[in-house]
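Regression check, BIS(adenosine)-5'-pentaphosphate case 187:
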Amino acid sequence: MKIVLLGAPGSGKGTQGEKLVAHYGIPKISTGDALRAAVKEGTELGKKAKAAMDAGQLVANEIVIGIVEERLGQPDARKGFILDGFPRNTAQAEVLDGMLTRLGSPGIDRAVHLHVSDEEIVKRLLDRAIKEGRDDDKEDVIRKRIEVYNAETRPLLDYYAAQGKVVTLEGIGSVDEIFGSIVKVLG
Ligand code: AP5
Ligand code: MG
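Current build output:
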């Protein structure tokens, strides 16, 4: 099972991704988590990514593509994976399709799009700012992330619709209800 989780910041990609890991026994690959870990460790990659992340902008394609390529090549990703936060623009989606072709795979099975209103997103992320203090959970940066999502990532809905792979689900409600609706479409 090869799944891409699509959705605006705060739509629940990370939360639902964790539950899918437990349910299907396949790894989750989150470029955001990998980048935050690199920033925290102070690696060269982290230093390159930090300014863009703090501004709510996308990190350079070659950086995130490198992360995903390395991770998808590991044995535990052979039988499937959940991608959280990648791809985020058409160039990344095309590279992903190319990588999977080289690995002998017909591509992803489904792109699951979690739809959540902007007001709910801002509310959730300001709430998380208090609990976790993530550097990009500040109101102006949250609004920038939504803008970048609309401009750069939303077109992927058409990209995957053209492959007949996209499914849009309402991302508002309890975490378990939403998880139930995802598992129902994935089977
Ligand atoms: P990334 O880490 O991917 O962040 P994001 O897309 O902005 O999304 P979030 O992680 O904030 O939200 P989520 O959808 O995972 O929701 P979550 O489950 O956490 O990216 C961060 C940055 O890294 C980017 O801005 C960019 O700079 C860079 N980056 C990453 N990938 C990149 C790429 N491919 N290319 C270029 N740059 C890249 O939920 C959010 C909150 O809501 C949580 O507190 C959660 O507890 C709560 N919540 C979840 N579900 C519910 C629910 N049903 N009801 C109420 N609350 C809920
Ligand atoms: Mg996340």
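Comparison notes: The chain has one domain: 2-186. Residues 2-186 form a domain with the Rossmann fold fold (CATH 3.40.50.300). No diff flagged against the previous build.
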